[in-house]
């Protein structure tokens, strides 16, 4: 039997998209559906899950209010702290630095990603611990400073871990900037500072938006940094989730929190796309 | 400005420098430098658990990144051929896969797999003709699948962006010259999207190799390297871990340099 | 159904029916999962990976690897190397921070462990949930019930059947850096007071409901095992008040105590002995007002992928010659008189390892109900997320 060209084309298309579709269905849609089912269930008497149909778990979300508050404050604060450090560096790399050295310097921003995140965080555990910076401070007479296991340590770990993710999109948007605009502005007698605020900054906003949205969204699900640098005292939603599945074994409540977290993440994404559209004139948040 | 940049680089590299430094510690601890020695490299290489974890991580990262690159690219190309609505659905799915936190991916995949296994295993045992029915369980497969789901979406988005920026005219010209679609793909499209596929593969590999939280939930009895390191942090780290981290860092720098070299070569050739 | 076939089933016939009925009741999820045709592919992928579901079938065939779930710093690393040399089986070690975490992993399904180390109060729950098998003692000839001290080992039996064999017993006290803290401490009441004053920012409590809530209860004059809501409410009040003063909530306190980041921590015998051995200024103290006494056991999960190797390792560890090395390395006291006979005097006379009978009297064994009580689980979670 001879296939019509159209049928053949459809089959090829299906063969191209099929594997991805199946994969996404089995390992994303289905698991999400599973936690949705779990989230309306009950905690079994010995812990775990037993089937039920109740919205008690969602009514009980308030029991983890502190984790939500922690996450929803520290994530944007962390993203902004990243931005404050990343922007000047990205500007330096895109505008000021000798173009021949640019590639090397930008690569150097990426290299830390190639060492284990855990090992780097462990290194901070040492630096912030009694034998690290506090020890140095002791030598100059400042005694008993405690840095590790504080919100400040978690914030530092966040900035350290996510800084490259903030630098890159801003760098890209600044690099794309048309230099002639800057020259024209200078020719028209604008001071460098007003050129920056009237031209450079507005034109780099898409990069800034991408960076802030990306870092905030990733931080909403953070587990390791608060665990390792917060000593179990600074609690994110991610930590609450791990705890609910592995310690208190209240899987339905854990599922309800996971579902809520996904909703929060999607909401943050949509809101930032909205803001990006309004202020930067682009609807696009480049996630990759 | 320059001083600020230097300070940021110092901030980025001080902890890494410390990791490398302590890998050469002759003492037992990863936090008190006693003297210079390379003994921990030898110990790390002969520590079967550490090496097994490294091997697991390499296999998982390589297989999941390869599958992600292949299927992600196929999907990106295939989606060029479908209507706007299908494309929008997949764009949404890819974006969702990327923004859903790892901890949620880990937990939900575990929950779903366990349910699936508890149905399939008895069914399999009942239907199996031989004496020893296979048992489905968590292991390499589950980590690869969960990592690949996420990284495939990453690859698809990167390659799609590249395809969108390609000129249509060159493809049409090729078709006008009676090239078959396959030839057009091989000779025209593929060379242009190859760098994005490679970039996607590298990103996928890096993500998978470094992921802790997804593997923490969906791994069976095999530890990945990050899982091994996490367990070591609980026990108290020895410079063995630093030695492995240093070797991984060195290997990745070599890989970056090679990748840069290959890409630059391409650029000048074009 | 032929006999060998049934032996190869992952769960017993009863367990299977039970599972099946549960799925029927919770059929919402099952329908959807079953309806997915793509799973056939996943089946093929998962089934083929070694270690994903491999089992040794003939008794005596030990395979080449197994994995054990245990506690951090709990074994002599040489033990597993020697076992590998003797049997060819490599042992993968997974460490945990609490019994709850072990139970959660088991409840979540295939863990891949062929041997694990649960604490006394959890064993009845594991057997009720059908997660562990009755042990076949004929495969553990090195175990001798006659040389065991019944005070510590009775909870290995449920309804007269042996589900677990003892590894060692121990106590939960606290460890103090006496170079940093000068206030003399003798009780859990002292512990929580000093944690808020002299040791402000330097004290650690476990990330473990049993000991953290239990010790808080003891300091208030209640039972370590209380699940009475009004007593738990008082304990919660205390813990929340102490939390801002704590260095960390973490069961892995050895690194922090050694680096002197922390000066005071809840502590188990074996860690206390190890810390004190390396740093004599780290003292180990038992609460005069109470606290925990415990026994850790070896048990074999029902889902164990390599039971022959699990039994082989269990039998190996029950050999007094091997057990004594474990004892010397980890510092927790033995339940086996054959092992005591082999110990050097400096260990048997070590008051951290073998305390006076008088100091053991106020201590309580953990009660099974604390493992599954939702009130305690939720209290711990509130304390951590507060």
TrEMBL record, chain A:
Biological process per Gene Ontology, one example term: transmembrane transport
Ranges that cross the membrane: 12-41, 61-91, 103-122, 153-174, 195-220, 251-273
Gene Ontology CC annotations of this record: plasma membrane
Every ABC transmembrane type-1 domain range: 68-272
Subcellular location: Cell membrane
Membrane topology: Multi-pass membrane protein
InterPro entries: MetI-like, MetI-like_sf
UniProt keyword list: Cell membrane, Membrane, Transmembrane, Transmembrane helix, Transport
CDD domains cross-referenced by the UniProt entry: TM_PBP2 (cd06261)
Classification via SUPFAM superfamilies: MetI-like
Top-level lineage group: Bacteria
Family designation: Belongs to the binding-protein-dependent transport system permease family. CysTW subfamily.
Protein name per the record: ABC transporter permease
Species for this entry: Mesorhizobium denitrificans
TrEMBL record, chain B:
InterPro entries per the UniProt record, alphabetical: Bact_Polyamine_Transport, MetI-like, MetI-like_sf
Gene Ontology biological process terms, A to Z: transmembrane transport
Matches recorded under Gene3D superfamilies: MetI-like
Membrane-crossing segments per the record: 54-77, 89-117, 137-159, 196-221, 241-263
Record keywords, A-Z: Cell membrane, Membrane, Transmembrane, Transmembrane helix, Transport
Family that this chain belongs to: Belongs to the binding-protein-dependent transport system permease family. CysTW subfamily.
Descriptive protein name: ABC transporter permease
Originating species: Mesorhizobium denitrificans
From TrEMBL, chain C:
Any single biological process term in GO: polyamine transport
Chief place of localization: periplasm
Name of protein: Spermidine/putrescine ABC transporter substrate-binding protein
Coiled coil: none
GO-annotated molecular function: polyamine binding
Domain of life, source organism: Bacteria
Organism: Mesorhizobium denitrificans
GO cellular component, one term: periplasmic space
Signal sequence coordinates: none
Record key words, sorted: Periplasm, Signal, Transport
Keyword Glycoprotein among UniProt keywords: no
Pfam short name (any one): SBP_bac_8
């Amino acid at each position: 039997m001879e296939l019509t060209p159209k049928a053949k084309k459809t089959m090829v298309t299906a063969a191209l998209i099929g594997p991805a579709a199946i994969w996404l269905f089995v390992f994303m849609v289905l698991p999400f559906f599973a936690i949705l089912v779990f989230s309306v269930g009950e905690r079994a008497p010995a812990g775990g899950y037993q089937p039920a149909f109740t919205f008690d778990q969602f009514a009980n979300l308030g029991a983890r209010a502190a984790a939500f508050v922690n996450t929803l404050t520290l994530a944007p604060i962390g993203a902004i702290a990243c931005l404050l450090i990343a922007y000047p560096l990205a500007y330096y790399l895109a505008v000021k630095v000798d173009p021949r050295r640019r590639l090397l310097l930008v690569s150097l921003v990426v290299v830390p990603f190639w060492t284990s995140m855990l090992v780097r965080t462990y290194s901070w555990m040492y630096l912030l611990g009694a034998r690290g910076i506090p020890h140095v401070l002791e030598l100059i007479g400042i005694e008993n400073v405690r840095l590790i296991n504080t919100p400040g340590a978690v914030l530092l770990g966040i900035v350290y871990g996510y800084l490259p993710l903030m630098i890159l999109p801003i760098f890209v948007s600044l690099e794309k900037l048309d230099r002639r605009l800057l020259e024209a502005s200078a020719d028209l007698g604008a001071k460098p500072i007003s050129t920056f605020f009237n031209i450079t900054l507005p034109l780099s906003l898409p990069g800034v938006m991408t960076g802030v949205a990306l870092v905030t969204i990733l931080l909403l699900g953070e587990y390791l940094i608060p665990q390792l640098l917060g000593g179990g005292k600074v609690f994110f939603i991610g930590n609450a989730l791990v705890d609910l599945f592995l310690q208190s074994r209240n899987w339905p409540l854990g599922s309800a929190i996971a579902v809520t977290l996904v909703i929060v993440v999607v909401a943050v994404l949509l809101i930032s796309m909205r803001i990006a559209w309004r202020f930067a004139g682009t609807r696009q948040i480049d996630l990759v | 400005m320059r001083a600020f940049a230097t300070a940021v680089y110092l901030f980025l590299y001080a902890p890494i420098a410390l990791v490398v430094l302590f890998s050469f510690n002759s003492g037992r601890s990863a936090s008190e430098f006693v003297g210079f020695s390379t003994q921990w490299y030898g110990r790390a290489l002969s520590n079967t658990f550490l090496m097994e974890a490294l091997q697991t991580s390499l296999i998982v990262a390589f297989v999941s990144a390869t599958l992600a690159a292949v299927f992600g690219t196929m999907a990106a190309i295939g989606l060029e051929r479908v209507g706007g609505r299908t494309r929008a659905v997949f764009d949404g799915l890819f974006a969702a896969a990327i923004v859903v936190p790892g901890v949620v991916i880990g937990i939900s995949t575990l929950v779903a797999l366990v349910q699936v296994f508890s149905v399939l295993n008895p069914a399999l045992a009942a239907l199996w003709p031989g004496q020893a029915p296979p048992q489905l369980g968590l292991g390499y497969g589950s980590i690869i699948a969960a990592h690949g789901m996420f990284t495939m979406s990453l690859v698809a988005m990167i390659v799609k962006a590249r395809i969108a920026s390609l000129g249509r005219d060159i493809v049409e010209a090729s078709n006008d010259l009676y090239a078959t679609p396959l030839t057009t793909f091989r000779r025209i499209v593929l060379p242009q999207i190859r760098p994005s596929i490679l970039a996607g593969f590298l990103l996928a590999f890096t993500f998978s190799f470094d992921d802790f939280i997804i593997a923490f939930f969906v791994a069976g009895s095999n530890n990945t390297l990050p899982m091994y390191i996490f367990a070591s942090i609980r026990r108290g780290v020895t410079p063995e871990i630093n030695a492995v981290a240093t070797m991984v860092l060195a290997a990745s720098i070599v890989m970056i340099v090679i990748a840069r070299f290959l890409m630059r070569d391409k650029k000048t050739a074009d | 159904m032929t006999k060998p076939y049934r032996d190869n089933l992952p769960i017993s016939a009863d367990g299977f029916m039970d599972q099946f009925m549960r799925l029927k009741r919770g059929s919402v999820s099952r329908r959807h999962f079953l309806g997915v045709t793509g799973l056939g592919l996943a089946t093929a992928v998962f089934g083929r990976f070694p270690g994903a579901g491999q089992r040794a079938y003939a008794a005596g065939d030990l395979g080449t690897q197994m994995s054990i779930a245990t506690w951090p710093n709990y074994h002599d690393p040489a033990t597993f190397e020697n076992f590998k040399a003797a049997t060819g089986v490599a042992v993968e070690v997974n460490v945990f921070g609490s019994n709850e975490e072990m139970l959660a992993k088991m409840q979540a399904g295939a863990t891949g462990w062929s041997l694990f180390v649960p604490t006394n109060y959890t064993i009845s729950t594991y057997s009720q949930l059908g997660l562990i098998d009755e042990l076949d003692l004929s495969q553990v000839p090195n175990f001798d019930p006659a040389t065991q001290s019944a005070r510590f080992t009775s909870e290995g039996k449920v309804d007269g059947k042996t589900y677990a064999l003892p590894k060692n017993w121990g106590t939960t006290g606290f460890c103090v850096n006496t170079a940093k803290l000068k206030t003399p401490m003798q009780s859990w009441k002292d512990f929580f007071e000093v944690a808020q004053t002299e040791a402000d920012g330097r004290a650690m409590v476990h990330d473990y409901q049993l000991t953290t809530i239990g010790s808080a209860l003891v300091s208030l004059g209640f039972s370590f095992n209380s699940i009475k809501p009004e007593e738990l409410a008082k304990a919660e009040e205390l813990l929340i008040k102490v939390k801002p003063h704590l260095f960390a909530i973490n069961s892995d306190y050895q690194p922090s105590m050694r680096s002197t980041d922390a000066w005071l921590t809840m502590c188990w015998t074996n860690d206390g002995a190890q810390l004190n051995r390396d740093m004599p200024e780290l003292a180990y103290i038992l609460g005069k007002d109470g606290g925990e006494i415990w026994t850790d056991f070896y048990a074999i999960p029902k889902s164990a992928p390599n039971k022959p190797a699990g039994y082989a390792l269990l039998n190996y560890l029950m050999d007094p010659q091997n057990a004594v090395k474990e004892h010397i390395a980890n510092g927790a006291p033995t339940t086996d008189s054959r092992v005591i006979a082999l110990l050097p005097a400096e260990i048997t006379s070590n008051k951290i390892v073998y305390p006076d009978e008088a100091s053991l009297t106020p201590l309580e064994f953990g009660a099974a109900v604390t493992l599954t009580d939702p009130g305690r689980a939720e209290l711990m979670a509130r304390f951590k997320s507060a």
